[in-house]
Amino acid sequence: MDFLRPESWEEALAARAERPDALPIQGGTDVMVELNFDLRRPAALLDLGAVRELAGWETLPDGTVRVGAGVSYARLITGLGDRLPGLAQAARTVGSPQIRNRGTVGGNLGAASPAGDAHPPLLAAGAVYEVESAARGVRLVPAAEFYAGVKRNALGPDELIRAFRQAPAAGPQYFSKIGPRNAMVIAVCSFALALFPAERRVGTGLGSAAPTPRRAYEAEEFLAAEADWDADLDDAVAGRFAELVSAAASPIDDVRGTAEYRRHALGVLARRTLTWAWNDHRKGAGACA
Amino acid sequence: MRVTFTVNGREQVADDVWEGESLLFVLRERLGLLGAKNACEQGECGSCTVYLDGLPVCACLVAAGQAQGRRVRTVEGLAGADGLAPVQRAFAECGAVQCGFCTPGLLVQADDLITRVPEPSDAEIREALAGNLCRCTGYEKILDAVRRAAELKAARR
User: Fold this and answer.
1) Best mutation site among B57, B62, B132 for testing chain A: the one with the most A CBs within 10 Å?
2) Given pLDDT bands bounded at 50, 70 and 90, which one contains residue A182?
3) Is residue A189 a contact partner of residue A262, using CB atoms and an 8 Å limit?
4) Which class would CATH give A2-47+54-166?
5) Which pLDDT band holds residue A285 (cuts at 50, 70, 90)?
């Protein structure tokens, strides 16, 4: 096995192009498990941990936040929780403090597990992923177009994930996750919601509910059409929203839960997060952490 | 490959490191530092917790090559010239150690907590230790020890 250790983004892209058989590794919280358990023997590891461009974030001229793929969950929580509250909530549920010190959104996107905690809030907020190759340059991939199958994503063999881009929260955002305890939990299922009060619409993201993380489009359209944004949340509207979120899932029975339980729980999470968000919206809380 | 990094303040060189091995393997099997324990190898148990550039991490989930040029501090590096660290004294005083297997990881993780948060609440202690499993104590003595360690550390300041 080779160990490739680029120190700049340019070197990383060159290494990726030269060695499509190399497995990128960032925080290692997924990749090292596979190596330790002999589940994977890549020809090379491409360590992105020393690539300085991936380690920070910036605000673009249009106000969008561009976050490097190598920013840890711990730094995301402390540094970006005010602007990306839904993602920060999800980040707080990742693993343990030790895992949050190493794990990154870039790694979550690379692994593309349907259970990854970062995916639902990124989908709900309408994030865009910035991927790049030496030969073809930058591609901007909307979150909803990135997930291709179980643990598969839209990355080409010569591409790496550079960053994700997301507008600062325009309204309340919430993330909720089902698991047997409050730490070290792979989601049984999870749900994220982002309200955009000025546009009178909602974004959603479902985790551990289908072969890929996905949005609940019908639920989003229903709420945009039926909700009275100047009134308290109508019970019937909330109930129908929950049903549509539940119906958007295609879950499986596995060791963590049954499909039936997941469908039920997603409805509960949808109704609960919508109620929290709507209460904030009515209080005029705007972006809330 | 060769990996050169700083461990407990001293530069260390590990040779013939396999590219897929973990920092934990290098510490235990190549450098003979047996404090950090090897248990789950998947980041679930926290018994291999060490500082990497000042942040507690699971050494089993750091590729050896990722430690190149960086600073690692293990449980062996907690005690100073003035004796045991506050967390170590407190764990002994409070009876927070039974079989001892989880103790090194808990010590490093608790040391980080009381360094960052001088007077941690019970909720903060539980949150900080959520990734460290102990199968003997039922955790009560460990919580006592962390509270006591914070007091001892404050007294030293």
Assistant:
1) B57
2) confident
3) yes
4) alpha beta
5) low
For B44, name the nearest residue in chain A, comparing CA atoms only. A184
CATH architecture of B86-156: Orthogonal Bundle (1.10)
Residue A289: is its pLDDT beyond 60?
A: no
pLDDT at residue A281 is higher than 70: yes
Show residues of chain A in contact with B19, CB under 8 Å: 1-3, 44-45
Spatial separation of the C-alpha atoms in residues B46 and A250, rounded to whole Å: 34
Q: Give the mean model confidence (pLDDT) for residues B1-12.
A: 98
Q: Do B58 and A102 touch (CB under 8 A)?
A: yes
Picking from A183-187, B42-46, B96-100, which range would have the lowest pLDDT averaged per residue? A183-187
Choose among B123, B124, B102: nearest CA to B113.
B124
User: Model confidence over A114-162: pLDDT tens digits?
Assistant: 999 999 999 999 999 999 999 999 999 999 999 999 999 999 999 999 9
Q: What is the dihedral of CA A162, A167, A168, A171, to 10 degrees?
A: -140
Tell me the chain B residues in contact with residue A182 when contact means C-beta distances shorter than 8 Å.
130
* Residue A33 identity (one-letter amino acid): V
Residue extents of the structural domains in chain A: 2-47+54-166, 173-282
Dist CA A226 CA A98 (whole Å): 44
Domain B3-75 = CATH 1.10.3720.10: no
User: What ipTM was assigned to the predicted interfaces of this complex?
Assistant: 0.97
Architecture of domain A173-282: 2-Layer Sandwich (3.30)
- The residues near B131 (Cβ < 8 Å, ≥ 6 apart) are A95, A96, A97, A98, A99, A183, A184, B43, B44, B45, B46, B49, B58, B109
Task: Over range B35-60, report the average pLDDT.
Answer: 97
In the stretch 58-77 of chain B, residues with CB closer than 8 A to chain A read 58, 60-63, 65-66, 68
pLDDT of residue A288: 47
Mutation pick from A32, A33, A77 vs chain B, by most beta carbons of B within 10 Å, is A32
Q: Are B22 and A36 in contact (CB under 8 A)?
A: yes
Q: Domain-by-domain residue ranges, chain B?
A: 3-75, 86-156
